[in-house]
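Write out this protein's structure.
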Amino acid sequence: MKNIIFLLSFSILFQSCYSYKKIDYKQNEIKKSKKIKVIKLDKTNIEGQLVSINENEILMFSYNNGQILTIPNAEIESVKIRGFSLLKTFGLIPSVLLTGFATLLILYALFA
């Protein structure tokens, strides 16, 4: 029982350590192999790894289908880069611990 609770809290904890930050991709230099999310004008999201970028298009390796996609700038609404979020990480730890403690108290009250 302890192992299951530990495993669930650990997986929830590290699931939210990353977030996407919206950038102006035409003016900012995005490093190659950076994980990005492209939101197209038709509201479809494409997550993947940046291969190259120029003034006309973005080339990226898509995680959805495993192919290299060419996305013209005319179809792009916004680009977000993935980054580590300290606030989400350290804000989540106390909430997971409090939830686990509350669950244990409820279980103890039910079975005691």
